[in-house]
Design a protein that fits this description.
The protein is mainly alpha-helical and 89 residues long. The protein is 76% helix and 0% strand. It contains four helices and no strands. Helix 1 packs antiparallel against helix 2 and helix 2 runs antiparallel to helix 3.
Length: 89
Amino acid sequence: MTTLALVVLLLVLLAALQTSGWRIPAISASIAAGAWAISCLLAPPGAAGNEGHAWAWGVLAWAVLTLATAVWPRTRNQSVAAEALVQGA
């Protein structure tokens, strides 16, 4: 579980740099955190690696928000690129 938490943290930090292809690590972190949260919600309360339902709901909400942010179209960048193409022609 510690490795999963570190991988999710590193993926989010990589996405925060907003380099080319930053959405891939953001989506990967969201899916990994969401899968962990769902497994915590489905597991019995005393299972190993289960941090409880409160943490699981919090992580699931974070994963959904991060995923929505990563896949939401960024119209601001698209309009700037389109304007640059018009000016260049």
